[in-house]
Amino acid sequence: PRDKAQVERPIPYIRDSFWRGRDYCGHTLEQLQAAAAAWSSEVAGRRACRPLAGAQPVKIFHAVEAGRLRPLPPGIFELAEWSTVTVHPDIHVRVGKTLYSIPWKHIGKQLHARVAGGKVQFFDGGELVKTHLFKMAGKQMDESDYPPGKIAFFQRTPAWCRRRAREVGPHCQALIDELLGENALYRLRAAQGVLGLGGKYDDVRLEAACRKALAVGDPTYKTVKGILAAGLEHDPIPPAAGDGGAGAFLHGPARLFALPGGRNDPAGHGDDDPDSGRQAVS
Question: Are 133 and 172 in contact (CB under 8 A)?
Answer without folding.
Answer: no
